[in-house]
Amino acid sequence: MASVGETEPPAAGIVIPEEWSNAAHTIAYDSISCPPPIALVCGPKNSGKTTFSRHLLNVLLQRYKKVAYLDTDVGQTEFTPPGLLSLTVIDKLLVDSLSWPDLTIPCLKTPERCFFFGDISSKRDPTTYLTYIFALYDYYRKEYCMFDKIERHHAGVPLVINTPGWVKGIGYDILVDMLKYISPTHVVKICISTESKNLPVGVFWLDEDDSTSTTIIEVNSARQDSFKRSVLVQKDARLMRDLRVMAYFRQCCPSQLNITTIRELANALAAQPPFEISVSSIKIKHLHCQVPKTEIFYSLNATIVGLAISSESGENLSPCIGLGIVRGIDTFRNILYLITPVPPDSLEKVDLLLQGFIQIPTCLLQVQGCVSPYMSANVLPSD
Predict the structure, then answer these.
(1) Which of 74, 107, 156, 380 is 20 to 30 Å from 49 at the Cα level?
(2) Which residues form the NOL9 C-terminal domain (predicted)?
């Protein structure tokens, strides 16, 4: 019987170097007045951006009652399942841990606002990706940075922005656009010993004639060998994504149900009564691809979809309130069967299903002794 603890890589102790602590305290206590800091963390893949961002959150929470977190890494999300761009407001210290003992990942949180991008990279649609990020930042500014909002939140709500490790080519251009739009008070650049993989020095996102008040803080990756070479944090990215998806849908089951293995979760989800949704009451949108009308139901079955509410403004900005698994479709009754942890009162507001490329973890479909409705036991050869 496979458990999550048996399949994930061993936990590694997190040691925050003094350089990182100094950088975090500089950001948190750089100003004794409003506005609160807006810190963007960037650097190459596996350099420790997420770990630094979590540490910065905790340091900021020692001064501020709440801290906002804008997660722009759709492949390695921090507080949500993969494929989402989100703004989450944190009011409690985070536990620094890189491993999970069971299927209840403690850092899953309900975002204040999010959009379903539907992929683990921005490569397929950089324009929409940036549009969502800008909309989330605008929402943060509106809700937490207007003068009356700062008064209500006392010292204000600082913002931490975590970014993907794709910092070359189009990824670099995306980061530059993000920095220009947000204009953060602080930019933390994490550097590794392989110079060619690092971001350029200085205010690389601005032209020479442009001025900025942004404070740039450069730090080295946390782990180095005896020759001062960076030891990158190697993560099984796919496994981490699968763990977050499983932890998210674990919330469909009663909390008192003891589920600690993949097999137990697969059985519990298979036994979970689905919601019935009338196909006529919703719109279906396929992200990043086109699907013929005759194939829509086939493409939806056994997939993860974003549950969204159509934008009243007519813009392509439909906020997502959660994810669901399409358990089955009754084409005669035009009924769609959905499994989701989203409460019924919130689910009633959903009028748009978004299908991307976020998949049900294969390990949930191949559990020995559990018959999945989406896997064929016997396949006849085609002529």
Answers:
(1) 156
(2) 271-361
